[in-house]
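Sequence, please.
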């Protein structure tokens, strides 16, 4: 997913100077994060999971030596519901065990804490590479301030979708 802040077409004779941030891999550990970007995407399916919508997140992980950006996909599939719960709990809009109607308008700019790992992979060049991945989104500590300022009231029976009964017409 591209960083849209710098997604600006250039002319053939424009001046250039930005050498880029450089690529750095953080050591495994727990870090604060901010969601920098969110777009709606589609996962086309695989042998392990059916096709479904996906949230494509750009997450800035904060480190004392400088921030690192990680791209994260959240799949809107019951098989991956646990990960959605982890994420919304980490950004402070859900409590563990609570029912939540996902409000994607609260995601961009949200803050939380996560456990970061190092993933090793072999590139098309045949060399081994490393990159960071979010292993787990962490629950806010009891002494942590509200992560985003948004809280959702718990769902009541009236908020729950009605069940369809064959032969009945919306009782």
């Amino acid at each position: 997913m591209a960083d849209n802040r710098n997604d600006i077409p250039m002319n053939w004779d424009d001046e250039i100077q930005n050498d880029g941030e450089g690529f750095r891999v953080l050591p495994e550990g727990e870090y604060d994060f901010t969601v920098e970007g969110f777009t709606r995407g589609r996962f086309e399916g695989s042998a392990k999971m059916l096709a479904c919508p996906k949230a494509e997140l750009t997450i800035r992980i904060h480190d004392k030596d400088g921030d690192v950006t990680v791209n994260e996909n959240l799949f809107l599939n019951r098989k991956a519901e646990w990960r959605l719960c982890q994420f919304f709990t980490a950004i402070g809009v859900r409590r563990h065990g609570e029912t939540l109607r996902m409000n994607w308008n609260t995601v961009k700019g949200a803050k939380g804490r996560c456990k970061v790992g190092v993933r090793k992979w072999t590139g098309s060049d045949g060399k081994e590479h490393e990159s960071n991945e979010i292993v787990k989104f962490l629950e806010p500590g009891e002494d942590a301030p509200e992560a985003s300022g948004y809280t959702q009231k718990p769902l009541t029976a009236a908020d729950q979708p009605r069940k369809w009964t064959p032969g009945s017409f919306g009782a």
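The beta strands are 29-43, 52-62, 68-75, 111-122, 128-138.
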